[in-house]
Design brief:
This protein is mainly β and about 300 residues long. Helices cover about 10% and strands about 30% of the residues. The chain starts with 18 loop residues before the first helix and ends with a strand. This is Fibrinogen C-terminal domain-containing protein.
Amino acid sequence: MFLIIIIYGVVIYPICHGISQIKKEKLFTTEAGKRIVSSLSTITTTTASSTACASLCTSDKDCMTASYFNISKQCKLDSDCNPTTENWQNGILIRLKTIPSDCSEFPDGTIDGVYTISINNDCIDVYCDTKTTDADSMISAETGEIISSDSSGEYINIVSLFDIYVTDKISNILNGKSYSLRSDLEDWYGERRYAQYETFSIADESAEYQLTLAGYSGDAGDSMLDSYQPLNLNGQRFSTKDRDNDDDTGGQCALTQKGGWWYKWCTYSNPNGLYLLGTEPDHSGIYWCTWNASIPFYRMKSVTMKIKRLP
């Protein structure tokens, strides 16, 4: 299964098949003397008991935490994994016991769609792709006009208008676990290819999201681990227009290539460049140079990057 992080500018309709089985199995924990502070994601109702309130939360696809007030019988359901709380004498805080941290933790038979996972006590919505060949669970996201789920496996779609916020979320997902990276590409003639890397990890913010990458396979060509060292991105730090970490002393790649990426002396791959219509090569557009060696900056219609947790 693949997992897709939802980024601004992209609309996906949530599909929650499989989450009910998770909730039936995980149940909940309670903490006396606390309640949830009202927020935009809170729904307030009344129930006969704290147990009934907890049951209501476990049966609601969006509920992650709840609180119950014994005197007024007030039950608050919240979609936040870690909502703001306060001490309250007659309050009871209810938390779902286990929230999946990856697409691979959802039950067999889970279909493609948007799901909530928990990373460092924070909830994020991701897209789980269950179909891609040789995949168990993938997180994924696409550069281009739309996100599609016609590839397969258990992947998380991760790259859609990459910025520091998104990179930080991905770093938290990857932290302490082994993942592979797969890029599904399509050009303007409708041809599709892929590039896969068996080892993929990103350091945290203190190390400026330094990239570790190895083990290429696929038919799109290797545009990230090129044998020409000035363009080999392994070990490179992440750059944006306000964080210049590239090796180009005479310029700033994030500005010239119009995106955020692990730029070195700029790059053979630019999945977060401008979305430009047509086939005319352009260094500021979305390109994958090794697709067509005779046409530099060969423009892509879409690039979908996905991560898969390894055993």
